[in-house]
Structure formats: C-alpha cells, structure tokens
Specification:
It contains two helices and six strands; from the N terminus they run αββαββββ. The protein is an alpha+beta fold. The protein has a three-stranded antiparallel sheet. The protein has a three-stranded mixed sheet with strand order 2-6-3, with no helix packed on it. It is flat and about 65 Å long. The model has no long low-confidence stretch (mean pLDDT 87).
Amino acid sequence: MSILLGPCRSQTVTPETATKSLRIMVSACLDISMKIWSSGKTLHYVFPECAHKFSPGTMEALNGHHMASSPEELVNSQCRVSLVVTPTTTLRDDRDHKRMMCYPIHKAQVLVMKEFEFNLPL
C-alpha cells in the first residue's frame, strides 16, 4: 500500500516507516468505523453546492473576514459559495424512531465571493 502512496510521501520517510504509519491509521479508522456502525447512529456529510448563497447556520466562511465583519453581513451582501473546503457533518440518532435527533458536528468551511450584477445593454 505504501508503494501506491509513494509519490505523496516525504522523501525523508523510509518505506517501512510509511507502511507502519499507514497500518496504524487504517487500524484506527476501522475501529472508529466499527463503533459508528454499531452505535445505531448515522453520520451524514454534505458538500454545499458552489454558487449557492452563503448560509451561516451550516457554513463557515474562511475568507469572510475580508468582505464583512460578521456572517450576517455576508448574507446581507448576497455572498455566494465559490469553493467548498470541508463538508457539513451531522450525526443522527436512529435508535428511537419516534424522536430522531440530529446533532451538528462541523460546519462546512467555504470560500465566498460577492454576487456580481450583470448590466446587459438593452
């Protein structure tokens, strides 16, 4: 497996060290995955669409401080998503179907842009 990731690893790391580190990471990921699957909860992740309006409830603007002093000002100025860095992550409790609960884990990190107005000649 470390041969496949050879172009991605540092030249100072030996293949044995890379393989050992990769095995540790895969083992940890499998352990977390088993816990999530057996918990009765569902992990959801959603990537917001580019060009949609910025929503401070589910998004965090990484470059928003350059355009406005608050997330609400970004909404008022009609800012749009230009690039999605990380998805919105939520955890849904499916154990009791009568009262499902949804817990936010992480807001999507996005880069925003100002909405442009095109004035076409008539």
